Amino acid sequence: MVNITINNIPVSVKKGTTILNAARSAGIHIPHLCYLKEINEIGACRLCCVEVEGEEKLIPACNNVVAEGMKITTNSKRVRSACRTNLQLIMSEHDGNCTTCSRNQNCQLQKLAADFNLLNSRYEKNFPLEKYASWNKDFPIIKDSKKCVKCMRCIQICDKVQSMKVWDFIGTGSRTRIGVNRNIPIENSDCTLCGQCVTHCPVGALRERNDVRKVVSAIENPEIITVAQIAPAVRAAWGEDFNYSVEDATVNKLAGCLKKIGIDYVFDSCFTADLTIMEEGTEFLERKQKGDLDEYPMFTSCCPGWIRFIKSQYPSFVKNLSTAKSPQQMFGAVIKNYFAQKIGVDPSKIRCISIMPCTAKKGECDLPAMQNKDGIKDVDYVLTTREIVKLLKAERIHPKEVAEIPFDNIMQKYTGAGVIFGTTGGVMEAALRTAAFVVTGKNPAPEAFDELHTSKKSKLKPWREAVISLPMGEIKVAVVSGLGNARKLCDAILRKEVKYDFVEVMACPGGCVGGGGQPINCADKEKAKERGKVLHALDAKMPLRYSHENEDVKALYDDFFEKPLSHKAEEFLHTNHFE
Question: From CA 133, how far away is CA 148, in angstroms rounded?
Answer without folding.
Answer: 10
